[in-house]
Structure formats: C-alpha cells, structure tokens
Amino acid sequence: MLSNLKAQPADKILALMAMYREDPRPTKIDLGVGVYKNAQGVTPVMRAVKAAERRLVEEQTSKAYVGLAGDPAYSDAMISLILSDAVSRDRIAAAATPGGTGAVRQAFELIRNTNPNAKVWVSNPTWPNHVSILNYLNIQNTTYRYFDSETRGVDFDGMLEDLSEASAGDVVLLHGCCHNPTGANLNLTQWQTVIDLLNEKGLIPMIDIAYQGFGDGLEEDAAATRLVTSSVPECLIAASCSKNFGVYRERTGLFMAISEKADNTAVTQGNLNHLNRQNFSFPPDHGARVVTTILTDDALRADWASELEDTRLSMLGLREQLASELQRLSGSDRFGFLAQHRGMFSQLGTTPDLVEKLRADYGIYMVSDSRLNIAGLNATTVPILANAIVESGI
Ligand code: PMP
C-alpha cells in the first residue's frame, strides 16, 4: 500500500526556511515564513498568554473532554471580539477548530455538504492553502482579480467585474483584514459596494480573519467583518488566534456560521458539531482556554491589547522606514505602497527571477510570489533590503 504513494510537492515556504538555515552568510535576512518576529528575531510568548497559562496550571482541575464545539465561553468571547454586536447572538453557530486552517477546512466542508454545486471564488492571489484545500476537497473554485501589480493596490474594478460573473449560491472568500499575501485591502466604501453586489446576486460571503489587530487596530480591523455580517443574510467566518495571541502551535481557531433566521441556528450548530466529530472529535482546548481567560479578565485583556498594539506599531514603523529608505535610494515614490499596505505582509509585485536574485546575491529570502514578511525586518536590516531592492532593479 504505502509503496504506491506518490511524493507530495515540497511546501515552498518550508523549503525556503531550510535553505535559509543552511545559508552561511551572516547578513542573511528571512522574510519568508509567516510568523511575527520582534526586533531580536524572536516570536515571543505574549505576557498575557504566560499569565493565563500560569493561572490555568494552578486552577485547572480536569483535562476531561469538553464539548464537540469546544468551550462555549470561548465562542462567546471570540464572537464578541470579532463581531461585537453586529449580529444577534442567536443567529450565530460557532465551533472551536484546530487553528484558522481548521476553521477554513470546516467551512469548505460545510459548503460542500450543503451545496455541492457552489463554486468558491478566491482572490488572485490568496493564501495558497485556500486553493489547495479546495482542490483537495474537490470543490469547484475560481479566482477574482484582486491585486493590481502596477499600483500594488486592489484592482477594484477587476474584482467587481469578475464577481459579477458569479452565480447565486456561490461563495466569495474575502480576507477580513490584512490581506495575505498582498497587504492590499479594500476601504469601507469598497466593502459596501461588494456587499451590495453579494446581496444583488445572492452570493454568500466567507470571511477569513487571521490578523485582527495587526493592521489598523483591533476594532478597525474588525470593521469590514462587522459591516458584512450586519448587511447580509448568511455568512461564514473562519478566525485564527495564531497571530494576534501568538499561539501558533496551540492550534486555536473558530468557525462561525451565521444563519438568516435564529430558528435555523440549532441545526447549523449541530452540523458544526458533526463536522468536528467526523474530523477529529474534540477541538484543541489549551489555546482556546488561554484566549478565553485573557478576553474575560479586564487586566489580562488590557495587557494583551497593549502588547498587540506595540506589535502592530512596530510593523507599521518598519513599513514607513522601508518606504522612505526606498524613496531616498530610488528617488521615486514607486514604493509608497509599502506604507499603505497593512498587516504582516506586502507583495512587492516583482518576478520570481528577481526574487531569486535577491536570495542568491544578497541572502534575502522571500516567497517566489514576492511576498515579504515585514516582521522579518528590523531597523538594521531595512536599509540592507532597500539597497538590495534598488540595486537589483526591482
Ligand atoms: N488564513 C490566512 C489568510 C492565514 O494567513 C493563515 C495563517 N497563515 C490562516 C488562515 C491560518 O492560520 P492558523 O491555522 O495557523 O491559525
């Protein structure tokens, strides 16, 4: 049996990480992998997470199974963090999942179970795992134009034109904030136009929100998700705590499914529980419990929000430093988009050949689609990157 297996293609980012580790150059810079790193290159455990973990160690009396949807207090805390009061709670079914990826996967399975004819529309480009999971599940999918490689902003006209081709019942996958990989985002007026199109054509939004607090602030980054959910009959949401709580390896996510009417919620909730049961029974609990402990304790929550804000501001500072250094070296404003983009990533919009040149000649590692992780930089490496970008003719 096992000898019939075919080798899977290597994961590009993991392959890049391995090359980086083996590169002997002391000046090498890793802008590949999607984790936050501070100025010392460390992905820290946040203070509030440590405190909540200490409290759990002291106070937790059992590790017995929790329900199939995880701890309801976790769902409540996350729903309030993301949606505030945009949607009446009795319309929302929710289940804890192994990370945001688990939530994305459950959402796709739910779509396939309930409407096998639905096509899922994803932005071009999107987080590659969206497309690979859709293909793995044999779900029809296609792209809508999103990134304008000239302006490095959103090709909004192209996006609308493509989505106008979608059929009623199709699902449109949208990034709630901090678009990965491009860093380019819609403004709220554009979101409203998208909502009008969704409602006009009977399309169902699925929002992937994995970076709340990394862009313009905790509330600001949730604004689009709140606007969508308060304006459409049905919506699916996949949320991740990996980045904003720094609990990557704890696998902490939430899948929410919002029904048009509250009397549908119990059946929807039953389906979420069923999906968890079929795939892994009970979702991981530790990360979810840490998140709940933080969100429901005033002091821990304030400390978490303040550390998250420092993280956000440090990335914004690096963006501004990089954009101004590039302006100085290139004598042009063409890199101004780096300061406009939000979140951990920006797509430079250059060719794989030039990305390879940056790696070979300068020891600068980024994914071949020219996505760079802003958090991989620090005040010392920004001028090195800026110089390499200008010298290599990007
Ligand atoms: N969605 C997007 C857009 C992401 O960038 C990520 C993380 N790379 C995720 C979902 C899932 O993250 P995780 O499974 O680590 O929580």
Provide an overview of this structure:
With 394 residues, the chain is of the alpha/beta class. It folds into 2 domains: 11-45 and 301-391, Aspartate Aminotransferase, domain 1; 65-296, Aspartate Aminotransferase, domain 2. 46% of the residues lie in helices and 12% in strands. The chain has 14 helices and 11 strands. The strands form 3 sheets. The protein has a 7-stranded mixed sheet with strand order 2-8-7-6-5-3-4, with helices on both faces. Strand 3, helix 5 and strand 4 (141-145) form a beta-alpha-beta unit. Helix 7 packs parallel to helix 8 (218-231). The mean pLDDT is 97. 4'-deoxy-4'-aminopyridoxal-5'-phosphate binds next to helix 4.
Task: Pick out its properties.
394 residues, alpha/beta, Aspartate Aminotransferase, domain 1, Aspartate Aminotransferase, domain 2, 2 domains, 7-stranded mixed sheet, two-stranded parallel ribbon, 14 helices, 11 strands, 12% strand, globular, binds 4'-deoxy-4'-aminopyridoxal-5'-phosphate
Topology readout:
Elements: H1 12-22, E1 29-30, H2 47-59, H3 72-83, E2 92-97, H4 99-114, E3 120-124, H5 128-136, E4 141-145, H6 156-163, E5 171-175, H7 188-201, E6 204-209, H8 218-231, E7 235-240, E8 253-258, H9 265-279, H10 286-295, H11 298-330, H12 337-340, E9 345-347, H13 352-362, E10 364-365, E11 371-373, H14 381-391
